[in-house]
Amino acid sequence: MSERFRLLKSWKFHLAFIFASIFVDQATKIWAVAYLEASEDFPTGRIVPVIGDLLQFRLAYNFGAAFSSRPQDLLPFLSPTVFFLVISLVAVVVLFSFYRSVKQGDFLVRTGIAMILSGALGNLADRVRIGKVVDFIDCDFPDFIMQRWPTFNFADCCVTVGVALVLISPVIYKWIAYNPAGSNAEENNEDSLS
């Protein structure tokens, strides 16, 4: 198993993942602003159905934090850009320290931290570049909870999946430890196929 996941343990892979994720995040946001922004033909902005009404692309700007909360109002003497720059830099330092403290063999947690870092840096790039975060992925949600899920972006997806990886990694590692025969059987099957 260790041989199979060797690439995922490498800090070089995680660094490359962070840069690639930031690139994808910024490219999709640039596309969203160019294609979905309000125009003469679409005065309220273009809405692109992906899976009917369940999943669509619709441009929205977030001047606050997650789910449009506004923690910057706690320190009104700071501009929102400076507030989020300071918070993001502190978060990056903490995440980097956490990454370094995790054993190299703990590839799920390290990959999760890399995903969280890429999402945080992607949204920080928006705040520095245009003073707000570009969101464009719009999902429906069961109406008994809320009308629609708050609009989000690729960076938000990275943060969410990264946090999930960090939280569920102990369960996955326990499952792998308790199922060594299944893991060896898979490796033997792969060897016989090659």
Kindly describe this structure.
- With 194 residues, the protein is mainly alpha-helical.
- 59% of the residues lie in helices and 10% in strands.
- The chain has 6 helices and 3 strands; from the N terminus they run ααββααβαα.
- It has helices at residues 6-9, 11-36, 80-101, 107-130, 154-178, 180-193, and strands at residues 47-51, 55-62, 133-139.
- A 3-stranded antiparallel beta sheet has the order 1-2-3.
- β1 (47-51) and β2 (55-62) form a beta hairpin.
- The longest helix has 26 residues, at 11-36.
- The radius of gyration is 20 Å and the shape is globular.
- 24% of the residues are buried.
- Residues 185-194 have low confidence and may be disordered.
What form results from the Cα inertia axes?
globular
Instruction: Say how many strands there are.
Output: 3
Specify Rg, calculated over alpha carbons: 20 Å
Computed structural class: mainly alpha
Secondary structure tally, helices: 6
Determine the N-to-C terminus distance. Answer: 17 Å
Biggest β-sheet strands, sense, barrel? 3 strands, antiparallel
Strand content: 5-15%
SSE order: HHEEHHEHH
Low-pLDDT stretches are 185-194
Question: Fraction of residues in helices?
Answer: 55-70%
Strand arrangement, major sheet: 1-2-3
User: Which whole number gives the mean pLDDT?
Assistant: 83
Please describe the structure with a list of short key phrases separated by commas or semicolons.
three-stranded antiparallel beta sheet; 6 helices; mainly alpha; 194 residues; globular; 3 strands
